[in-house]
Amino acid sequence: MKTINYTMTADYRSNWNAIDAIREIVQNCLDNRHNKSTYELSDDGHVSIKTENFILPLRTLALGESEKPDGAIGGFGEGLKLALMILKREGCNVKVVTGDKLIVPTFEMNDAVGLETFCIKVFEDRDFFDGLRFDFEINEGYIDELKEKVNVFNNDVLPLPNTGTVDIIEH
Question: Where does residue 87 rank: exposed (0-12), middle (13-18), buried (19+ CB within 10 A)?
Fold first, then answer.
């Protein structure tokens, strides 16, 4: 097991909640246009986000590292780490599987600063997953808000905007 220590306390980004964290993870998946992602939300609040054929390099768990292309919004990897911290802070029982690695966020006492700070534990996983998978539980009270604010979890087809007449060209 490897531990990556950050000096972020649970109070960091106190204005973010689980919905903000999930939106950040979804946006990262949408930014990865080369690999297909799927988004599942069960009635009891289990969320699963999977990106096929993409293994997250462990170096991207360092602040300043990302897999986003040059010029992309973000690109420093801060959002992913914040999202994992917030999901842990909110008690969402989050785990990430990528390739043969299991990534588990936690808070541990940091003796250097005398506070509990955010950490990521990296374990060797016995079951290889050819992709990236986020699994976590959200409070059932967040389900409707998640569907409203993160449209990949909303099964309703959004109507096209009414912009007047539209020419449809068949090929």
Answer: buried
